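Progress note, sequence design subtask.
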């Protein structure tokens, strides 16, 4: 057997055979900004759209550092039709005097053409800063085909132009500028790096500018772009509003204003958000936070946790987020212990953060980030500092609002119980995966195994179930009788919902799970049909069932699987002629159009589906060739055009089926006249 060779030796011999020997001549030394252009991913994370907009973030961060240092009060951001971005601040201006180490170059040129050159390696000039390594602006310069800098210092204007990291000429004086101060940077991304079609998006730049204004209330940011750069379909800010062509962004309320704007019109758990700001222990910086919790019926997809360090966004989180999570869970557990709620001991950080909208801003000297793009804060001390700072404020906030604290505690405990239930359900699934499927005993299942073409009828009581079983197609139609009125899930605790036998039987029959555990591939029927009596009680039962599906299994509705049957309320006959009417209006219509001749018309009213002969039930309600069904649909909250309708639907369900009877009373009072006129409420 031949001896095994080292993998790297084999590769080396292969390379040598192709290209010859490997000598000192093959060692390449990249100087100046060449490393940036050769490997842009190391500095801006790649060459995609995110990397492109990182250029603007680097320049804006420099301007924000001037504002946070108390040297600038205004920043202008302009997106030009030529694809350039111009960022101007009224700060001190980048130094233009000769650099002591490179006397033939100005400090401005050294900063723009040299990696790791800047004034933020200590806290003499900037106590806290987003730029730390002296890399950002030089990287932007290297990756732009044109970049122009204007600096006003001591009422004198200085200008210098660059291309792909190299100066196109010397720093030039531009005359007096008595009413200006600060730095202006105009830049255009290099198409050789980012592609010919690469361009800045107005909504991303506007969102970036607005977040900076929220993060530091002492700055005013003026935004402008040409109307031709706005795409009606795509150009939306994070609150759903259209991006303006001009705007002045200044928010004295800081993160609280941001959170209030973002959650406007949505139902929250507590009357007011948890907001605060404070200095960190031992004068190591300061923090600001704003937290709110959405009600259980709100769309969880619109929750967020946005964190920042020295105004730099940290989308991958880090130690400051860990500190906040720990502070919140410890504070709420302590409150639960004070009020004697033993269930509070079960909650975790995931339970309290689930369904929350969180903003966290940290200002700290010399932070440690992962990588040049600064997407994650890696600083263990930050977790300890944030926890110590936030926990005390959170406990005071809970103590001051006892009612709101109780609502929050109940909400989080409900989340914890739901989490534990899901874990138990998954464990049960693992245990029974190889066993025969167990179905509710009262379910009369169909014989077809695959879901396609099958139907599950939900009927009230054994009597209606008996008629339906006799009138069904055994191959494709299953019958599940429900006892009385199903639990109103909108007005019940999670414990009651999970303990309810009727709901358990229904979920077992469906086989698809509920909530976040919904699995459409597990759904055992193509259609789920609610078939109740055609009277007021039947309508009430149908509304309870639809509420259950809307709250617990909305994806089943979105998938087009839920229907309402239309059983008749009356049977009209005249001689050999007969017809069925759904309601009083339909009866009167048939009397005028179908039974206009002489002779008495016999009208019989069905007391319920259980009183209807199986043959008639099949003929009128269950036979796919004869029946009529109503498909239940709900607006998609993710669709921009349906957001308002989705919000209205959620509000109607909460008002009519929720825990506050005063909301139902108000609805009845407002719509009583409509009901009297039309005998129906259009909801």
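Output:
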């Amino acid at each position: 057997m031949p001896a095994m060779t080292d993998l790297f030796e084999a590769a080396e011999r292969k390379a040598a055979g192709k290209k010859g020997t490997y000598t000192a001549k093959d060692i390449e030394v990249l100087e100046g900004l060449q490393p940036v252009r050769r490997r842009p991913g190391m500095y801006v994370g790649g060459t995609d759209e995110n990397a492109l907009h990182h250029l603007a973030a680097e320049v804006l961060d420099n301007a924000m550092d001037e504002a946070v240092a108390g040297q600038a009060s205004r920043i202008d951001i302009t997106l030009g039709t030529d694809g350039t971005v111009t960022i101007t601040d009224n700060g001190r201006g980048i130094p233009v005097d000769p650099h002591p180490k490179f006397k033939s170059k100005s400090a401005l040129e050294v900063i723009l053409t040299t990696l790791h050159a800047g004034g933020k390696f200590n806290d003499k000039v900037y106590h806290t800063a987003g730029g730390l390594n002296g890399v950002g602006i030089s990287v932007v310069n290297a990756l732009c085909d044109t970049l122009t800098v204007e600096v006003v210092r001591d009422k004198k204007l200085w200008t210098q132009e660059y291309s792909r990291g190299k100066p196109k000429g010397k720093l030039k004086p531009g005359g007096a500028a008595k009413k200006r101060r600060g730095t202006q940077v105009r830049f255009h991304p290099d198409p050789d790096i980012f592609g010919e079609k690469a361009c800045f998006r107005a909504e991303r730049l506007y969102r970036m500018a607005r977040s900076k204004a929220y993060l530091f209330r002492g700055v005013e940011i003026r935004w402008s772009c040409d109307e031709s750069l706005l795409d009606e379909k795509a150009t939306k800010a994070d609150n759903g509003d259209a991006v303006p062509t001009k705007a002045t962004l200044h928010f004295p309320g800081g993160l609280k204003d941001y959170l209030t704007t973002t959650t406007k019109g949505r139902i929250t758990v507590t009357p007011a958000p948890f907001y605060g700001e404070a200095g960190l222990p031992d004068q190591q910086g300061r923090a600001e936070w704003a937290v709110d919790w959405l009600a259980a019926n709100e769309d969880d997809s619109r929750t967020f946790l946005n964190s920042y360090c020295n105004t730099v966004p940290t989308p991958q989180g880090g130690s400051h987020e860990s500190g906040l999570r720990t502070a919140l869970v410890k504070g709420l557990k302590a409150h639960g212990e004070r009020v004697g709620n033993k269930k509070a001991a079960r909650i975790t950080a995931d339970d309290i953060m689930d369904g929350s909208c969180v903003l966290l801003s940290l200002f700290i000297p010399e932070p440690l980030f992962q990588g040049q793009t600064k997407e994650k804060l890696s600083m263990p001390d930050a977790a300890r500092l944030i926890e110590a700072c936030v926990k005390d404020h959170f406990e005071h906030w809970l103590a001051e609002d006892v009612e709101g604290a109780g609502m929050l505690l109940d909400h989080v405990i409900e989340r914890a119980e739901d989490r534990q239930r899901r874990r138990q359900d998954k464990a049960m699934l693992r245990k029974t995966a190889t066993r025969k499927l167990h179905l509710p005993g009262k379910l009369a299942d169909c014989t077809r195994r695959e879901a396609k073409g099958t139907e599950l009828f939900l009927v009230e009581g054994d009597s209606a179930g008996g008629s339906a079983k006799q009138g069904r197609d055994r191959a494709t139609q299953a019958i599940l009788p429900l006892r009385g009125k199903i639990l109103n899930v909108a007005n019940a605790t999670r414990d009651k919902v999970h303990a309810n036998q009727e709901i358990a039987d229904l979920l077992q029959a469906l086989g698809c799970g509920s909530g976040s555990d919904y699995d459409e591939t597990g759904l055992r029927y193509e259609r789920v049909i609610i078939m109740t009596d055609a009277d007021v009680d039947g309508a009430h039962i149908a509304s309870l069932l639809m509420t259950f599906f809307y709250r617990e299994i909305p994806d089943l509705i979105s998938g087009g699987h839920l229907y309402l049957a239309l059983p008749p309320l009356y049977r009209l006959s005249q001689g050999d002629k007969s017809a069925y009417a759904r309601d009083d209006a339909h009866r009167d219509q048939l009397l005028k159009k179908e039974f206009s001749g002489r002779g008495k018309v016999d009208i019989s009213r069905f007391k319920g589906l259980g009183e209807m002969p199986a043959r008639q039930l099949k003929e009128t309600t269950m036979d796919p060739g004869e029946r009529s069904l109503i498909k239940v649909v709900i607006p998609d909250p993710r669709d921009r055009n349906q957001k308002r309708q989705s919000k209205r639907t959620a509000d109607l369900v909460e008002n009519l089926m929720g825990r506050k009877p005063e909301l139902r009373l108000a609805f009845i009072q407002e719509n009583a006249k409509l009901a009297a006129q039309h005998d129906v409420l259009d909801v």
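The chain is about 40% helix and 20% strand. Work on this subtask will continue into the next period as scheduled.
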